Task: structure prediction
Amino acid sequence: MIVTKSPPVPRSDAIGGSFIHSHGTRVFVRPRLDVVFDAVQQARFNERKWVWVEHDEKGYVHGHILSQDGQHVEVELDNGLVTETTADKVHPMNPPQFDMVDDMADLTHLNEPSVIHNLTGRYRANKVYTYSGLFLVAVNPYRKLSIYSDESIRSYRGRRRGEMPPHIYTVADQAYHDMLQDRENQSILITGESGAGKTENTKIVIQYLTAVANHNVENQLEQQILQANPILESFGNAQTIRNNNSSRFGKFIRIEFNTQGQISGAHIEWYLLEKSRLHKQNRMERNYHVFYQLLNADNKTKENLLLARGRPADYAYTSSCNHIIDGVCDADEFSNLMRSMDVMGFSDTEKLDFLRIVAVVLHLGNVAVTKSYGGEGADIRDCTVLNNVCQLLEVPADDLKRGLLTPRIKAGRSWVTQTKSVTQVKASMEALAKTMYERNFARLVERVNQAIDRKHPAVDKLGFIGVLDIAGFEIFEVNSFEQLCINYTNEKLQQFFNHNMFVLEQEEYEKEKIEWQYINFGMDLQPTINLIEKSNPMGILSCLEEECVAPHGNETRFLEKLSKAWDSGKDAKYVANRFGGGFTVKHYAGDVQYSTQDWVEKNKDPLNEDVARLLAQSKNKHVSGLFEDYKYDVDDMDAQQQQQQQQQQQQANSMYGTSSTSSLALFKLRKGSGSFRTVGQRHKQQLIVLMNTLYNTRPHFVRCILPNHRKRAGEIELKLVLGQLRCNGVLEGIRLCRKGYPNRLTFADFRKRYEVLCPGVLQPNQYIDGRTASQSLLDYMGLDSDKYRIGVTKIFFRATVLAELEHGRDKRLGEYITEFQAKCRGFISRRRFTRISRQTEAIKVMQRNARVYVALREWPWWKMYSMLKPLCEFYQTDLIIKKQEQQLSDFKTQMDALTGQNHQLVAKNQQYELEQEEYKILLESEQTMVRELQDSKQCLADDLAAAEDKQRATTRALQDAHDQLITKDKENDALQAQLREFEQQLAALKQENEQQATMIATLHQDIRECSDDNDRLAAEGDVLRSRLAQADKDHNDLSDTHLAMAADAEKQQAQLQQQLDDTNALLTHAQDTLAERQQQLDKETQEKCELAKQLTDAQETMATQKQQLADAAKAHEALTQKLADHEDTLESRQTQLHTEAKERKQLAQKCTDLEAQLATQTDENKEAQARVSDLDAQLAAEMRDKKDALDRCDALSTELAELKKSLASESEQRLQWEIKNQTLQADWEQLTAFVKSEILESQTRASRMDQVMAALKNQLPQPQHQA
Result:
């Protein structure tokens, strides 16, 4: 904090002024003096038409118009050069009285050059804060200013906006006041580029809140909240090119307050930690601060973490970047970190465990991976550094080495060892380092929350103020997946701002009852948001998620899907790049070209699960706790263990309330657990929770601006600031402001200021109400009715209208002042002439008397008279003395009496002075009370009128909601009828599936019978082969006998004849046997044909079943689509009902306050009390109707849940049917192949038998030759 004493700031009570409502906020407006402070400058501005001209280098330069012909304008610049340009590059300039205004929304010409000129002038005058409607624009001063002292905090405490110069203290104090007054949660959204001052402004807001809410100097909780920043900065901040202490993550700090307005707790949520900085930094940047602080720690700590004598240059993750920051001592910062941890209640073991992971990351970067001998794999030959890593992690070194080089992956239900290359091992170690550091950071934030998030009863809680510190819109030369997530977040926040800004604005229009058609400005950004997050058709995140889940997913298919779905024309928000490799998205801040390189891997966030399972078994509780979700394999866990794990995750998610999500639990989600989330899904889920929280708060917006890239004070780069104004939505807010009526005045102020333009229209001594008088003035001025609207208490003007009125007023005042000056000069001249004339007459009288005296002085009798006159006094000396003595005694008596009276008067005067002081104090208190009563009475009257309007609007809304509920009931009845039809169809499908299951069982029985027949045929084939072998043996014996008979033919002719007869008989028997086998083969062939016919019929039946399953799948998809549409409708209806419930709650709270205040009023408010009572009754009836509607919604949600459950069971049963069908088809194909092979083998055996028999016939001798 700055310790210099700040100069005293003038207060509102010293300068006068009044409160008005502007942009939904009660703002103090100082009175504008009618005199012109700089007459020369004003006269110079009125002589010519000054404008801003676009310039390529300087952005905008000022000049005046010489001539204009249609769209061609000739302008003389301030440096004397004359240029010709078009009308669209020329912008009007505001009058000098609008220079350096506190609120840029008050500018008469709302254009870019006017905004940048106002910011530049204020920045160079050390006024770094400027209002812009609902925004507070903060420009980084790059110097120490005396506006953050304790005296400044006391000056801004309890002050409303406008009473003091713009300051972030005003935003914080307004949030604190609104929370106490309205009992509504508040949020402060601080966004901007890196180096714009988001982190510092966040700390300033927290310091101010702790200061104004601190009623006890020894409050430990407030000290812990302040000390949480150094811890988060050490682990989450780093030096970048633009900023020496850049926060590389987003955070939402929620500060809880009790009913006494004191801080009762806090909670921190974080988003998008920049993990890639761990292993890759720019040369002029640094890694996270904690690495350098740890390397400059005491020797004992470094020895415990095996970092003795270690320097940043000795480690790969810190050696290639900057090592020191000018003006920062890392050793002192480490000591501050330890003190902050002590204040937070960290034990020595906890501090060492958090630093242990930091040391492990440093050691991991130094592990040398080389190519293995004789192979393509990797190897770690020097295990010294790896042993240090294992010693810190308390895991076996061999197991970690094996997990890095040859990890095991699960393929189905079996484990497969995979060999990694050198590049893959290095990438795996980098991913391990990033995951460990991210989970360690998540555990650190969780531990800080345990210290500052105090649990108190709900009755004692008043509300909270949330401070959001998140990166602003980013457009770089190369924009990757991280920039898409950040820009997606800013699209949602800008939509939230548009909705909030114009909802408040249009509520004021409705309150003032002016003609206005409601516009939903939040829908302007909805097409871009749909492009990123929508699921049907699939947006960017959904397509990327599908590619991450699909096998062999890549960026090419991802781009093809996006182009097919969203590249629909020139008005589309998505534009495909001409040469591929990326796409362009049209954001509200400009067109951003994204490069999709490595998006699939970045979104998957891959991790070596084998190493993760090893770390989950670590002996160190901190390390194993970081990877506890990998402790058990998901496929090996039973249902009870999975349910326990899910319950633990739900408990972690609900640790800090229903509206928050544990960041550590979100990162403990892995593949196979049924809860796997990619980086995009996690960010989307966190963003949904954040936006739900913000929509339940009253927001306040702060936009931080980076003035230059060189970090120099007083220097501002116009193009850089202009780009940030576009990205931060400041110019977008001004653009939207043009569509409404940003400038407004009360009737009295309008009449007082602009009645000079209409002399004689209003009678000075005649009473005319403000609305009629203002309408008469506007009619006399001849303003177009579209340029203004007259409300109940104010006149609303469009932009630039007041500039025209101010110009006419200045001209008329100039004429009046010129005439007044002429009359004054004439009066002064006449008075001077009269004075000179009187002086001349007096001189003449004096000269005449002098002449008479000179003439009389020489007369003798005058001389005698002059000599005798003094002697006459001596004759009366005694009488004179006596008379003087008598007078002296009288004087003494009177003096004594007067002295006594004087003492009495002094005493009475002192008494009267005391009484006067008492009366003065009493009078001031009574006057203050009277003013407060008058303000309260006016507020009550306004609130009562607003309550009546709100009640009428609520009645209309409830009637519409009732009609919509009736319509939804009819739709729900139709949906229930459709559901019953679908249930009947599902029953029919189940019956058909049972019939198909019976048919499949029959087919299985036939298959088994065919298998038995095949076994029998195989056995018969074996018997036939054995008989053929015996026939061959007999043929050989017969051949030998024939040779013997040929040698002794005559001797054994009778025996040969006998043997020939036997052989013929045997041949006949063999032929008969062969015929029988041929008949059996024909029969088997016929059976095979019949079986093939049955196979064809079964295939046709299976095709029919597939068609039925496809029809069922289509019906299921249609039903799912209808359910999704119905669910979206119900979700939107529930959101609407929730919003209406919130409005009813606010209205009920306001009515309660009105009853409490109206009870103390006079009898003239009795009628208002009766109306409030009626309003309470109506509200009670509306709340009962609302409760009934919510109960019906809950019942409908229950029916939807049951329907989803039945659909899930149906999907699971359909999947089982498909698996059985695939198994049956595979078995049937195997059976068909086997039957075909058997047929071919039988035909082969038959052909062989024919060949053998033919050979036997040819070798046997013929009977006639033998004879």
User: Anything to note?
Assistant: The chain has a mean pLDDT of 77.
